Amino acid sequence: TEDINRKYIKLRYKLLPYLYDLMWKCENTGAPIIRPLLFNYQNDKNTYEINDEFLYGDSILVAPIVEQGMRQKLVYLPKGNKWIDFWTGEEHNGGKYIIKDAPLDTCPIFIKEASIIPMAIEQNYIGEK
């Protein structure tokens, strides 16, 4: 589990530029950083009752494993966009459910097609040179 923690801490540091951009938008528009799918996809009725996925800003969909022992996850990808698996690069059309393998070390994460996600170089702490 230490390796898994390290993997996601490094991902967090890589995503700091994206988080800083989201914080600026939150301050200036009131849009939350973490939001339910319904927030962005009000015309997609399938998003109304999904409570085990969330958007990180407009561009990143996270479908965490919320039950002990689960190794697959039924993930809904909102319609109107293609979604790219963050880990594999595999593309999926929106507006449908997919079954995603979710080994212990991999949280299902998807990037909305054509999104620009600013990322920092991998580092162990903020300010590392």
UniProtKB/TrEMBL annotation:
Glycosyl hydrolase family 31 C-terminal domain segment(s): 30-117
Superkingdom of origin: Bacteria
Protein name per Swiss-Prot or TrEMBL: Alpha-glucosidase
